[in-house]
Amino acid sequence: MAKLIKLFLFVVFPLGLMLGGAYGLAKIGVIPVKRLTARNRAARTLVRLVGLDSPRLPAVQVNAPHAAAPDPLAAERKELAGQRQALEKQRADWENVKRTQAKNAEAAAAAERAATDPKAIARLAAVYEQMPPDAVSKIFAKLPETEVLALLRKMEEKKVGEILAANAPDRAARLTLALSKPAPAAPPSAE
User: Fold this and answer.
1) Is the domain of 170 the same as that of 155?
2) What pLDDT, in 10s, does the model give residues 19-76?
3) Could you give the C-alpha distances from 182 to 48, 70, 110, 150, in angstroms and in order?
């Protein structure tokens, strides 16, 4: 009896486990039964008898990724990619605006430094006094009002009147009001 138990434990039981494992793998499609039995008629008959000719479970591809299954997060990933692209564009636009603002601030500071120089203002006022009022008003339309006021204060009253007459009425009114007030104190020169 001990021999029979040893035979069962060491031969029959492991053989049954291996056959069961192979059957299970063939049933789920890991072992390609149809391809293995394509040329052997006896093997096809045996496969049909044990029920492996039509696997009930879908075949599993061992070495291929699951490309057939749709990605449940594909829509979210696409939306996030679009949002990321929009944010990158906004960031680039914002950086361009900041660079432009920095350049403009630097140019304004340089213009202000040049405008605070009384010699430069007096010289420019003398140049503008020699020009026709229409040309001066076109130039003054592109300058900040603080610059225009500093130049007008250095010019003769008659020329100032001609320039104000050549300006648009609303701008001429603003400049007139500003000219009627005392000039702001000039910062001390750094000489």
Assistant:
1) yes
2) 888 888 878 878 887 887 888 888 888 878 877 776 555 555 555 555 567 778 888 9
3) 110, 77, 24, 11
At 78-112, the pLDDT tens digits run 999 999 999 999 999 999 999 999 988 887 777 66
Q: How far apart are CA 55 and CA 68, in angstroms?
A: 19
The domain tally of the chain equals 3
**SS3 label, residue 93:** helix
CA distance 56 to 86: 48
Q: How many CB atoms lie within 10 A of CB 61?
A: 12
The verdict on 176 and 122 lying in the same domain is yes
Nearest CA-CA partner of 150 in 109, 189, 178, 131: 178
